[in-house]
Amino acid sequence: MPTETKKYTDKQELIAKFSNALGHPVRVAILQQLSKQSCCFHGDMAEVLPIANSTLSQHLKVLREAGLIQGEIDPPKTKYCINKENWNLAKGLMIGFFD
Amino acid sequence: MPTETKKYTDKQELIAKFSNALGHPVRVAILQQLSKQSCCFHGDMAEVLPIANSTLSQHLKVLREAGLIQGEIDPPKTKYCINKENWNLAKGLMIGFFD
DNA sequence: ATTTATGTTCGTAAATATACGAACAATATT
DNA sequence: AATATTGTTCGTATATTTACGAACATAAAT
User: Fold this and answer.
1) What is the overall mean pLDDT for chain B?
2) What's CA A60's distance to the chain center, in Å?
3) Which residue in B29, B35, B98 is closest to A91 by CB distance?
4) Radius of gyration of the CA atoms of chain A, in A
5) What 8-state DSSP symbol labels residue B80?
6) Residue B25 near residue A93 (C-beta atoms within 8 A)
7) Confidence band for B4, pLDDT divided at 50, 70 and 90
8) Nucleotide C19 C1' to residue A50 CA (A)
9) pLDDT digits (tens, 9 = 90+) for B46-59
10) Cys-Cys link to B66, which of A8, B21, B26, B45 (CB 3.0-4.6 A)?
11) DSSP-derived secondary structure letter, B99
12) Per-residue pLDDT at A2
């Protein structure tokens, strides 16, 4: 049994987690692009975004770990897509949050 | 004239800024409380939240600087309220973002 | 003029985030 | 087998975030 007292509700933690993922403009840009066309390749994004390739990988990892996107390797390219289930979860939480 | 190229759109920067403010569960909790009852005192929040008083001040400052709340001193207490204009702006941006 | 109540600011420590290039991995092509 | 293409991971530097207690500020009450 957990002796640790939870400090925040699951919902609060989730809202914070998703919001955190949206907390950098380049990640907002990435998600806008992905949600517009559902999927796209790392390389396509790298051409447009003002950051190094390795930095893009890091941001994609943040979004992946927050559950908002998922990647699949299609060598030598990598295709990233919105994770629709979590996207909708986030959408619902944010709408609920703002009333 | 600005020689600096803007890297992101104003909308992307705004979404990131507001999201960033929501990126910590205690700030989510604070905003939930404030949006439920419109205003409340620092002390009332401090009683409920699992952080030191000084830490609460810091988080309130983050929310204030993001424009989501505003504080007014009513000595010796400080009353914080939702900044409705920016709250609605954020709401619209987030809803638009998630389609 | 002290003391009390309520928050804020300061100093500081530890953790996390952001950025880049170099090195690496995996596959396709030559 | 060697090369080229595409991304990821590693190493690293710098900046920001988060947290706390101590010190400070302000006004009311004694």
Assistant:
1) 94
2) 7
3) B98
4) 15
5) E
6) no
7) low
8) 11
9) 999 999 999 999 99
10) B21
11) -
12) 54
C-alpha pair distances (Å), A70 with each of A18, A34, A49, B23: 14, 11, 19, 21
Contacts across the A-B interface (CB distance below 8 Å): 86
CA of B18 to C1' of C9 (A): 25
**What are the φ and ψ backbone dihedral angles of A79, each rounded to 5 degrees?**
-105, 130
A76: left (phi over 0), alpha (psi -120 to 50) or beta: alpha
The A residues from 29 to 58 touching B (CB cutoff 8 Å) are 29, 31-32, 35, 50
pLDDT over 90 at B85, yes or no: yes
3-state secondary structure of A71: strand
**What are B77's strand-pairing partners?**
B74
Tokens 């389609």 locate to B99
Structure tokens at A57: 């990988």
DSSP-derived secondary structure for B22-61: TSSHHHHHHHHHHHHHSEEEHHHHHHHSSS-HHHHHHHHH
Separation in Å, CA A23 to CA A57, A59, B24, B90: 16, 11, 11, 13
pLDDT at B74: 81
Q: How is residue A63 written in tokens?
A: 């979004």
Coil, helix or strand at residue B73 = strand
Å between A75 CA and D1 C1'?
A: 21
Contacting residues of A for B24, CB less than 8 Å apart: 16, 20
Consecutive 10-residue averages of pLDDT for chain A (99 residues): 77 98 98 94 96 98 98 90 97 97
